[in-house]
Amino acid sequence: MYIFSDLALNLRQTLGDWFRVIQILKNGVTAPDYLLKTAYNSTADYFAHFNNWWSAIEYYEMGKNTTKMIECYYHLEDWKNLEALIDSLPEGDPLLEKIDGTFAIDLAKKYNISKISDLLMKYTNHLVEQGQIMTAIQMNVQAKNFLHAAEHAYRLENLKQRSQTEIW
Question: Signal peptide location in the record (predicted)?
Answer without folding.
Answer: none
